[in-house]
Amino acid sequence: MRRGLSSQTTILWSYVLPTLLIVGLFFALLMCWLGKITGKDGEPLSLEVLCVFTLTWALVIVGLVRALGFLKRVEVDDDALYVSNYTTEVRIPLSEVTVVRESGGGKSLTRVSIGFANPSAFGESIEFLPRLGRCWAGMGPAIRELQALCSQASARNRIDSAMPFDPTEKIFEADDDCVLRVGKDYILCGLGGRDSDFQPDEQDKVLFKDLDRITVIRSKKSGSITGIDFEVRGKPVPFEITGYEPMDMEEIARLLESRAKSVPIECREA
Prior knowledge:
- The protein is built from five helices and 15 strands.
- By secondary structure, the protein is an alpha+beta fold.
- Strand 3 and strand 4 (about 90-95) form a beta hairpin.
- Helix 1 (about 10-35) runs antiparallel to helix 2 (about 45-70).
- The model is unreliable at about 135-140 and about 160-165 (pLDDT under 50).
């Protein structure tokens, strides 16, 4: 499920405010050239002064475009960044991200810069404003979240290269001896799953066709998965998957989402 990384005020900083400033300064400059704005003696401004004002106006425009005009709207899911300039949106896999860093801070707006291994439609890097609550306070938590997602994407790529996807069944073991078995059309979670000869009865299984929703719960600080809830039709309380290694939790979530697409089931993140 996609979620926003950039501030909802990006369009204000990128387009609305620069446009108002440029139009306002241009109007003032025009009034100077037309002689509507005069010096202290009431005389029109000299040509030298007008040229200085014009040069200053041009430099301000260039500065605004460089500082704010290239800011992007950025969303992310478990696999990719979605970067937009409000007319075009580009999907960039997280595995393409090579660096995430912040600039600004203190008394100025914090911006986040993301570099890519290969040039995208927006170039080799992009910049965006973080969500408004973090713009003025530094972006440590948000940078860690994005870096964690990129690390998880790289880890998934390594897993996919080392171990081909098994379409029939996966088994995951937790520290508390609980074992999760994800079959082609069912989930089994319990102590009995540790026995490789154990054959679950129909009553032990949760079938994908009986699920209403799968919710992947991530830590706001690290971005790692802390739990996976799956809601079963007719059951008042959702079942929870927890206690597995972080890498296993990532693979379980990916596996459940893959299985759910064939039913289909609503999958979301919280």
